[in-house]
Specification:
Length: about 230
């Protein structure tokens, strides 16, 4: 998908329906364009390779929401991948809210997010990773995130949650099943402050919550999301 700013407002430039997702424009007052990612088919199953591409033009404002979330099913020895490539041009603004990304029992998922930001661009991003549905231990997940600002690395993370035995050790996630975070890239937001906040070496900050239930992570992250500019 690609969006551009013309006449003081952001408009869709290219919205393409893929194998798994269909972008839908949601109308609302203001200069930003709000787009929802509607599901086309069930995902992720073994062998699925979902790729999302987002291009926000100079000075454009995009609010991207995923009302359905993602459920990775039992891969039965196979593997699935979920990838997003985001490009923010100079002065672009984007808020991206992802609900639960659930890794069901027996699933094996590679999740990768790559973001390239030009000078003056800003991204406010929220995600929630859930290891297993109710009563499940959860499958294997490797989540790779890379954010570059003006061609230089701003944030790089390789989160390897492939082995349930290793991730459940003290100091990793223990008995927790939910890892949620709010991240600001391109500027350093004001409060709130607390031990769960990590300010980056460059312009940006991250607030993470590890919990046993999604609603408990949301209770921690909702005030941060709104304080940093999320709707």
């Amino acid at each position: 998908m690609a969006v551009r700013r013309t006449g003081g407002r952001t408009h869709p430039h290219r919205l393409e329906t893929g194998t798994f997702l269909r972008p839908r424009v949601l109308r609302r007052p203001g200069t930003a364009l709000r787009v929802a990612l509607a599901a086309v088919r069930a995902a992720l199953c073994a062998g699925d390779d979902l790729e999302l591409r987002v291009d926000v033009g100079p000075g454009a404002e995009l609010e991207l929401v995923d009302p359905n979330g993602t459920l990775a099913y039992n891969a039965r020895g196979g593997r699935a991948s979920w990838r997003a490539r985001v490009r923010l041009a100079e002065g672009a603004r984007m808020t991206w809210s992802e609900p639960s990304f659930i890794v069901g029992g027996g699933a094996d998922v590679l999740r990768r997010i790559d973001v390239d930001m030009a000078p003056g661009a800003r991204l406010l991003w929220r995600e929630t990773l859930v290891l297993g549905r109710s009563g499940e231990r959860g499958g294997a997940l490797r989540s790779l995130t890379g954010v570059r600002l003006s061609g230089r690395e701003l944030y790089v993370e390789d989160l390897d949650l492939g082995s349930a035995e290793t991730r459940e050790l003290p100091g990793v996630v223990g008995a927790a099943r939910v890892i949620g975070q709010v991240a600001a890239f391109g500027w350093t937001p004001g409060g709130p402050d607390g031990p769960a906040r990590m300010d980056l070496a460059g312009p940006g900050a991250l607030w993470r919550s590890v919990a046993d239930r999604t609603y408990r992570a949301d209770t921690v992250l909702d005030p941060v999301w709104h304080a940093w500019g999320g709707r």
